[in-house]
Amino acid sequence: MPEFLTQGWLFELIIIIGKILLLVVPLLIAVAYLTLAERRVIGFMQLRKGPNVVGPFGMFQPFADALKLMAKETILPAGADKIVFMIAPILTFVLAIVAWAVIPFDAGLVLADINVGILYLFAISSLGVYGVIMAGWASNSKYAFLGALRSAAQMVSYEVSMGLVIITVLLCVGSLNLSAIIEAQRGMWFFIPLFPMFIVFFISTLAETNRAPFDLPEGESELVAGYFVEYSSMSFALFFLGEYANMILMSAMTALLFLGGWLPPFDFAPFTWVPGPIWFILKIVALLFVFLWVRATTPRYRYDQLMRLGWKVFLPFSLIWVVLTAGFLLATDNLPPFMS
Length: 340
Description:
This protein has 340 residues and is mainly alpha-helical.
């Protein structure tokens, strides 16, 4: 028998794969039902029923959509760079999944509890633009290319303000570990003292995920769905799944940074009877509802309005707030040890 089997190496590998599946499978199911929830919520807001035929209350609609997309033919445009064209949706989807490796659902309930978890999340979310750019360029279509350029400019613009918001939170915590950030909110969630930054961060997540009112890369009126206009079948489905997985990821980041993660709103019974992961999931669901609410009620921005908000409003405002937060913590002698 090989030596690595006798040392338990294979057993540890199986455990790791099992943990990954326990994380990825529920996430994929959540992504599928988020698409149904969006159509139902927007339907109710617009006095329509939404999907209600396939299964009870339309519960099997996501599976019907998945079967339909898998049965369709994958069409490769004649002038496309075929290798890059096929890699782009895979990259978008994979990046939306691997970011969950550092998300803590409860104390100690995390796949990889690394000390630079927030930097890992920020880096992975920043890489998402590459899939969009590759798709727009490889399609050899002017509409897809313009959508990719819009997305690149948009995501870069709002990542700057998101980075400054994260710096504000780190000033209050003194650690890059996500579990430490949550524990620092045990007395008070950060959305109370940092409420303006909470609003800036949430609006920036709308722009980062190309959601309404910032869905300029997919502008149907002028770009015919934008960077994925040439995609079909499962390659289109991967972009679709990646977008909704990113929505869940950004909601999870918002809950971790500002809403106390797995912590209950009040530290006494009956709130403490509810398990931490349930609180975390409820916060994600509440933020996702706001995503859908905004899409149902807000008209799309013009591109100049989008850029103005990012560079002329959010950037200076978040920079000023970083300075004010650092000054206040220094004046009150509350700076974390490694920053003081």
